[in-house]
Amino acid sequence: PWWGVPRVREGHFHPKILPYRRRTSLELSEAILALYAAGVSTRAISRFLEGIYGAFYSPQSISRLTQVVEDEVRAWRERPLDEEYCAIFLDGTFLFIRRGKTAKEPVYIALGIKPDGRREILGFWLFGAEGESAQNWEEVLKDLRKRGVERVRTFVTDDLPGIEEAIRKIFPGADWQLCVLHAVRDALNKARKKDREALAEDLKAVYRAETEGEAKEALRKLRERWGSLYPRVVARWETKAYALLAFLKHPKAIRRYLYTTNQLERLTKEVKRRTKVVEVFCEEEAVEKLLYLVLADLNERLEARKLRGFAEINTGSYHVAQTQ
């Protein structure tokens, strides 16, 4: 066939896709896992292998080849973690899983930033519930503690039910930072269209303040201007100010990384992109294996680069400040 390996008299031709004297099965396994983790469907992989390798593998055969040893998944999920993190982001996404009947189930994900600016995907958790649960967040934090995490400067999350109580219980010395951008978006959605631009500027004066004192003064002005028009919006920003402005306790050079959950949102968006080829997972083990392939791959990329700004910090004093 046209895709066959060319035959030459001297025998010096060797294809690049299958290196000389390498086992075909090993190369196929590596190629299939890489494609599968990148979000390519088993049918598309089947067509690719037939066109490039000249060998037909059914989608069912490819599904079997993508089975990662469960011990490997378990080892990654239970691996020891560092004792200290500058920040840990917590959030979840939803995937369809069939357990008799099909339902959307939350997948809990944690992303950490180390004091030197390197990021690490700390793990993922499935509990089988159809909605996010305060008890489940507590179990996530207990697992982080069991795997070696002792000191966390700040947890960055949305205002999820029970999340603050779970943090206070398992990591009582940590601060809690609410996602500022989500709080701004929520406030603007509650305002009339003609007021949104001005309200956005006044909210920006709060979270762009250089110091806690400046932020409190901006909150006072917010109350004076908008308290009568949008009392609930203003009251929320005042009562949650301790959580919305916790990032101001960090050095200015790294604050931009800590006042929003955008970093973890980008991660969960990539997870959704790579898993969308599987509309419904037939079992929990299938979810775990694909999540492991995706997150372990992304984790290698994150750990290879340090975030800017952390090199400017006096590491010694920053560590002391985090001691709980």
Quick recap:
The chain has 14 helices and five strands. It has 324 residues and is α/β, with parallel strands linked by helices. The longest helix is centred in the last third of the chain and has 20 residues, at 284-303.
Instruction: Give me the number of helical elements.
Output: 14
Q: How much of the polypeptide forms β-strand, as a percent range? A: 5-15%
Number of strands: 5
**Quaternary state of the chains:** single chain
Rounded to the nearest angstrom, the distance between the terminal CA atoms is 68 Å
* Widest sheet, order of strands: 3-2-1-4-5
- Poorly predicted parts: 18-26, 320-324
- What structural category characterises the helix and strand content? alpha/beta
Global morphology: elongated
Largest sheet entry: 5 strands, mixed
